[in-house]
């Protein structure tokens, strides 16, 4: 991948995709083939979901405090690149051969339903992001410790990026 | 993982730390004020990491790779601005070496490598004044 930022799926499509897997798994719908995930793929999916939540916190903070866009926008884009890199490791849910088998993700949870609250003070909102980055970096380090070699390398890099963000994100 | 693979990975990061220490010696001479203090702190951190790696390799019964008398630097350092570019490149290069160690090592040694990658990435970002999405992964560099 040369430019994950441009090529990656949107946050919404990622959530829809993972939601689709969950729905299919719960209902046993014959219209969707649920790929069996390896341990590393499950780890990548969990990391992608956690980073998607972090990216949503950035988006909500920028929306609530537009003056933070210049500083936070590039960092949020890096999280999107992380999600894209991790999702690229997952098998795409494949619809059955039936023409009417195009699966709809309408049953998945709506991303907007979980828009995180943002502090009314920009300084507090940004400080909350820095704390979230520290938490994220710790989670990613733990995931890197458990993953297979190649995924571990990717997760450790993402963890390092999140640690950098925790340093750079200042009110 | 074979012990040979583990030792080679440790020797590789040790060699990376040797080269980085040498580079900071060159860059530090061009820096003043806060940048010089930052370079000195980084120099000390890298020396501590080097000593830790030497001890680990000796404890495994192997001979730690020695520092070379000089290294080819990733950029010249004829001015203070050049020196900041050099320290950034030194840390970026070292981050890549540690990242490879993450993939090769396991257990507590992998944890060491994860920390080494993070430390190099944070120092690179401070020198650079900004973030990159995948520190230590040159194949994903923009």
List the helices and strands and how they pair.
The complex is a heterodimer of chains A (171) and B (142).
Chain A: H1 4-7, H2 11-27, E1 32-33, H3 39-64, H4 69-87, E2 94-95, H5 122-146, H6 149-168
Antiparallel strand pairs in A: 1-2
Helix pairs in contact in A: 2-3, 3-4, 3-5, 4-6, 5-6
Chain B: H1 3-28, H2 33-59, H3 80-104, H4 107-128
Report on this structure.
With 171 residues, chain A is mainly α. Chain A has helices spanning 4-7, 11-27, 39-64, 69-87, 122-146, 149-168; strands at 32-33, 94-95. A two-stranded antiparallel ribbon of chain A has the order 1-2. In chain A, α4 packs antiparallel against α6 (149-168). Chain A is globular. Chain B is globular, with a radius of gyration of 15 Å. Chain B is mainly alpha-helical and 142 residues long. The longest helix of chain B is centred in the N-terminal third of the chain and has 27 residues, at 33-59. At the A-B interface, α4, α5 and α6 of A face α3 and α4 of B.
Residues in helices of chain A, as a percent range? 55-70%
Tally of DSSP helical segments of chain B: 4
User: CATH superfamily membership of chain B, which one?
Assistant: Ferritin, core subunit, four-helix bundle
CATH topology of chain A: Ferritin
**Number of contiguous helices of chain A:** 6
CATH architecture of chain A: Up-down Bundle
Unreliable stretches of chain B (pLDDT < 50, length at least 5) are none
Number of domains of chain B: 1
What does the radius of gyration of chain B come to? 15 Å
CATH class descriptor of chain A: Mainly Alpha
The most extensive contact between chains is: A-B, 32 and 27 residues
Briefly note the structural class of the backbone of chain A: mainly alpha
Largest sheet, strands/sense/barrel of chain A: 2 strands, antiparallel
């Amino acid at each position: 991948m040369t430019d994950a930022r441009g090529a990656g799926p949107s946050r919404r499509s990622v959530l829809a995709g993972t939601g689709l897997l969950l729905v299919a798994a719960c209902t046993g719908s014959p219209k969707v083939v649920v790929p069996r995930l390896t341990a590393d793929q499950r780890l990548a999916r969990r990391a992608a979901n956690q980073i998607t939540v972090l990216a949503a916190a950035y988006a909500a903070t920028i929306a609530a405090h537009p003056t933070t866009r210049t500083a936070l926008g590039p960092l949020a884009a890096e999280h999107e690149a992380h999600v894209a890199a991790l999702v690229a490791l997952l098998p795409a849910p494949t619809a059955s051969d039936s023409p009417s088998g195009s699966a709809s993700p309408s049953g998945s949870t709506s991303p907007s339903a979980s828009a995180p609250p943002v502090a009314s003070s920009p300084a507090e909102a940004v400080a909350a992001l820095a704390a979230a980055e520290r938490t994220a970096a710790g989670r990613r380090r733990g995931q890197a410790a458990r993953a297979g070699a190649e995924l571990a390398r990717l997760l450790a890099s993402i963890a390092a990026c999140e640690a950098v963000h925790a340093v750079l994100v200042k009110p | 993982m074979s012990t040979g693979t583990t030792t080679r990975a440790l020797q590789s990061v040790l060699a990376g730390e040797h080269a980085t220490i040498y580079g900071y010696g060159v860059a530090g001479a061009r820096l003043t004020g806060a940048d010089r203090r930052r370079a000195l702190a980084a120099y000390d951190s890298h020396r501590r990491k080097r000593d830790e790696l030497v001890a680990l390799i000796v404890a495994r019964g192997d001979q730690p790779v020695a520092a070379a008398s000089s290294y080819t630097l990733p950029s010249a350092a004829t001015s203070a601005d050049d020196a900041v570019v050099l320290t950034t490149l030194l840390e970026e290069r070292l981050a890549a070496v540690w990242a490879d160690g993450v993939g090769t090592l396991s257990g507590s040694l992998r944890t060491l490598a994860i920390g080494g990658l993070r430390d190099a990435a944070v120092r690179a970002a401070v020198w650079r004044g900004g973030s990159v999405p995948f520190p230590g992964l040159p194949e994903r560099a923009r």
